[in-house]
């Protein structure tokens, strides 16, 4: 949604008052695709029941949640999905869905329209069915998702294509762009491949290197700041996070993101996290009411207390404006909610270079170089701390 | 002839946040924000009250003259009906869900 004065006020008010404006609720981790990059365990270990979901929705409505995203897993695998959706709409939530759409029929599209769903995000990995189906591991999934998009468009629903870019489909980004234009829908290319939600890092091997991403980062249509570029005809950037709500505001300027401030995530087991990319348990809605977790959890308060200006490394970084640091990934990949992590620094340096900054180096890399330099120099000249030239080097922090 | 009852357009998403109502139209993603008095009127539009009945409540809540409350309510209702945020209940019956 485009930034407007009304939205900006709403976001500012909810950040300042710490109101959970935006909630991402995964109704199931079960799925009818087996995407190679998926961070979830698709076994069902006892999902929240229909009654439990409704009770949570009652609580969310009471504390002021307006934006509700139902996601998964695949939401249409829940037999009670439409019952839950109808209940959510009776409580006046603004509902968005994330789905692979394999189970969306013309009839279901009509029901979604009648129930007032505002937006539906569908993952498409390539305009080439072979590439798409190889990622989902379901033959025919491309054609089925595409057919569903047309059903939804026919109903006048807002559809958005999300395309996570990994090694398997890097070169597909232009075809996805073209497909989205043909379908008349917005799209987002997501460069983020995350660790599994249980902390397993093996999926990171699917990430493209910074060098490999250069064609994406240099594309003038996708990146208007690239010299010679043109304004993107969309309300949101075409490269970004498909997890993000897309709500932008200056209220977020000194906080890492909305997670824990005015948004959070609920798992199919009732666990509450600040964000799906910050799987830090803060409470469980089978044992506690939502407001107890939101207002009472020590972990949630810890996340809320973080300010960008106080990040030990990143606050000193000269190329911070080019960085898309995610605090959840800082925790998962670097082990420190407040820390810098390699992937963000690598992409920030690339973005800065493309924007015309000469020899950009992130604060993390400066410190690593300084430490290496110190170490090497120390080996040659013990006691280098007394050498005037080295005193200027910033002290190394553990990151 | 009795005045129609006012009801929210059932396709809208809305929430009263800290006493002020925010409304979103799913068709165009337009966000509307009501001030405190308009939010009061909105909260009374439950399909059972006419603008006159709401104006009486408004006058009592904000301690304003009844005629002033009625004029303000009618102006606001006309504005919200023009934007299809509020509907008159006979028209709303057919499209209501849930």
Which features does this protein show?
heterodimer; A: 399 residues; alpha/beta; nine-stranded mixed beta sheet; globular; disordered C terminus; B: 98 residues; alpha+beta; Outer Surface Protein A, domain 3; three-stranded antiparallel beta sheet; two-stranded antiparallel ribbon; 5 strands; 44% helix
Distance between the amino and carboxyl termini of chain A: 35 Å
| Helix proportion of chain A | 25-40%
Sheet with the most strands, sense and barrel status of chain B: 3 strands, antiparallel
Radius of gyration of chain A: 22 Å
Q: Roughly how many Å apart are the termini of chain B?
A: 29 Å
What structural category arises from helix and sheet content of chain B?
A: alpha+beta
**Radius of gyration of chain B, CA atoms, in whole angstroms:** 13 Å
- Helical content of chain B stands at 40-55%
Order of helices and strands of chain A: HEHEHEHEHHEHEHEEEHHHHHH
Mean pLDDT of chain A: 87
Poorly predicted sequence stretches spanning 5 or more consecutive residues of chain A: 226-236, 376-399
Can you count the beta strands of chain B?
5
Helix tally of chain B? 4
Largest interface: A-B, 31 and 19 residues
What does this structure look like?
The complex is a heterodimer of chains A (399) and B (98). Chain A has 399 residues and is an alpha/beta fold. The two termini of chain A are 35 Å apart. In chain A, strands 6-5-4-3-2-1-7-8-9 form a nine-stranded mixed β-sheet, covered by helices on one side. Chain A is 35% helix and 10% strand. Mean pLDDT of chain A is 87; it is low at 226-236 and 376-399. The radius of gyration of chain A is 22 Å and the shape is globular. In chain A, β5, α7 (173-183) and β6 form a beta-alpha-beta unit. Chain B has 98 residues and is α+β, with helices and mostly antiparallel strands. Chain B has a single domain, classed as Outer Surface Protein A, domain 3, CATH 3.90.930. Helix content of chain B is 44%, strand content 21%. Chain B has helices at residues 36-44, 51-62, 66-82, 89-93, and strands spanning 6-8, 13-17, 20-25, 30-33, 86-88. In chain B, the strands form two sheets. In chain B, strands 2-3-4 form a three-stranded antiparallel β-sheet, with helices on one face. A two-stranded antiparallel ribbon of chain B has the order 1-5. In chain B, α1 (36-44) crosses α2 and α2 (51-62) crosses α3. Chain B is globular, with a radius of gyration of 13 Å. Mean pLDDT of chain B is 88; it is low at 91-98. Classes of the chains: A alpha/beta (399), B alpha+beta (98). At the A-B interface, α1 and α3 of A face β2 and β4 of B.
């Amino acid at each position: 949604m485009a930034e407007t004065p009304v939205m900006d006020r709403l976001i500012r008010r909810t950040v300042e008052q710490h109101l959970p404006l935006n909630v991402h609720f995964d109704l199931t981790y079960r799925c009818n695709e087996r995407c190679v990059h998926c961070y979830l365990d698709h076994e069902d270990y006892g999902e929240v029941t229909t009654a439990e979901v409704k009770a949570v929705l009652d609580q969310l409505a009471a504390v002021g949640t307006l934006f509700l995203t139902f996601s998964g897993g695949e939401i249409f695998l829940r037999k009670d999905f439409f019952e839950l959706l109808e209940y959510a709409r009776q409580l006046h939530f603004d509902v968005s869905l994330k789905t692979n759409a394999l189970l969306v029929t013309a009839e279901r599209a009509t029901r979604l329209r009648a129930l007032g769903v505002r937006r539906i995000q569908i993952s498409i990995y390539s305009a080439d069915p072979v590439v798409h189906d190889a990622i989902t591991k379901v033959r025919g999934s491309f054609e089925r998702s595409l057919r569903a998009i047309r059903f939804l468009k026919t109903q006048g629903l807002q559809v958005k294509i999300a395309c996570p870019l990994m090694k398997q489909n890097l070169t597909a980004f232009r075809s996805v762009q073209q497909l989205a234009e043909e379908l008349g829908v917005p799209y987002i290319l997501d460069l983020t491949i995350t660790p599994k939600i249980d902390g397993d890092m093996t999926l990171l091997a699917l990430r493209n290197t910074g060098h490999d991403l250069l064609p994406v980062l240099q594309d003038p249509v996708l990146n208007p700041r690239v010299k010679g570029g043109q304004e993107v005809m969309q309300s949101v950037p075409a490269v970004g996070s498909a997890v993000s709500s897309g709500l932008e505001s200056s209220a977020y300027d000194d906080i890492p993101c909305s997670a824990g401030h005015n948004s959070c995530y609920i798992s199919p087991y009732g666990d509450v996290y600040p964000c799906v990319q910050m799987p830090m348990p803060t409470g469980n809605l089978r044992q506690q009411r939502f407001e107890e977790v939101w207002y009472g959890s020590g972990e949630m308060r810890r996340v809320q207390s973080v300010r960008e200006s106080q990040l030990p490394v990143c606050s000193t970084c000269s190329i911070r404006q080019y960085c898309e640091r995610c605090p959840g990934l800082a925790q998962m990949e670097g082990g420190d909610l407040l820390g810098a992590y390699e992937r963000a620094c690598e992409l920030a340096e690339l973005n800065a270079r493309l924007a015309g900054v000469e020899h950009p180096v992130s604060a993390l890399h400066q410190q690593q170089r300084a430490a290496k330099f110190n170490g090497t120099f120390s080996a040659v000249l013990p006691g280098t701390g007394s050498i005037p030239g080295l005193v200027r080097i910033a002290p190394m922090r553990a990151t | 002839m009795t005045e129609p009852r006012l009801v929210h357009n059932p396709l809208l998403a809305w929430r009263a946040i800290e006493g002020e109502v925010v409304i979103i139209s799913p068709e165009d993603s337009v966000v509307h924000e009501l001030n405190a008095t308009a939010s009061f009127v909105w909260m009374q539009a439950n399909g059972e009250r006419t603008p006159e009945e709401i104006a009486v409540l408004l006058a009592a809540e904000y301690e304003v003259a009844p005629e002033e409350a009625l004029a303000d309510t009618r102006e606001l209702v006309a504005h919200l009906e023009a934007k299809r945020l509020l509907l008159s209940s006979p028209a709303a019956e057919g499209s209501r869900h849930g």
